[in-house]
Amino acid sequence: MTYDETEPRPVLVRAQDGPLPLDDTLPLDDPSLKLPAALADRLRAWKDSRPPGGFTNRPALRKHVRQGREAAQSLAKHLGPAWVVRYWDEQHGSAKYVCWGCDRLDWSADAHGTPPHPLDVMVRGQYRWHPLRAEGFGDFAPDDPSAALDLSNALVQDLSTWARNIDAVMDTWLTDRDDARQRAAYEHLEAEGTELTARVAAELGPGRSVRYGGVW
């Protein structure tokens, strides 16, 4: 099957008798998914934990449905707006659309509307500014819930520390006007910014673009 690359691609997350937890034509190692190994293993283990023919124990079914929903939400966040993810709830016998930017599930793809989360993120160091930028979003903190980036605590902390160090370098320069010291500090911070940008891109996955704007 071919897809119009200008339209979001559909994918259904469903545990059933058969080899795959996604659409029958979409294996977990499909290069278009770019799934991290941990997420692929999670989806595979969830599917394999379903007994052949389905559940006879309702508490076990409810637990399995919850685990599948959480896995589908992680998949939607990884894939971003270029895909339309649906999740089949075996308990209720229905499928819902999973929002890539939050934890909502809806009956139709357009029920949620377009979430105002940034798609093109810039990592940029600037005095007294947050370390992230996005068009129409301004500068923002890496753990700002409205951005829905869902970055790891370690990366949030490292980005925040990087921004504070940039402020400290500028505060020192405003006091001593030592240009050589400032340049040396900025060279180190530039290298850190490049590394942080790569980490942000890795955690956000293919659904968003990430670029580095340097240290100003």
The pLDDT mean sits at 90
Across the major sheet, the strand order is 1-2-3-4
| Backbone CA Rg | 21 Å
Number of strands: 8
Distance between the termini: 48 Å
- The total count of helices amounts to 4
Count of domains: 2
Low-confidence stretches: none
**Class by SSE composition:** alpha/beta
User: What does the main sheet amount to?
Assistant: 4 strands, mixed
Share of β-strand residues: 15-25%
Looking at the structure, what is the overall shape? Answer: elongated
- Helical percent range? 25-40%
SSE blueprint and pairings:
Elements: E1 9-13, H1 37-48, H2 58-79, E2 83-89, E3 94-98, E4 105-106, E5 120-125, E6 132-134, E7 138-140, H3 153-176, H4 179-204, E8 209-215
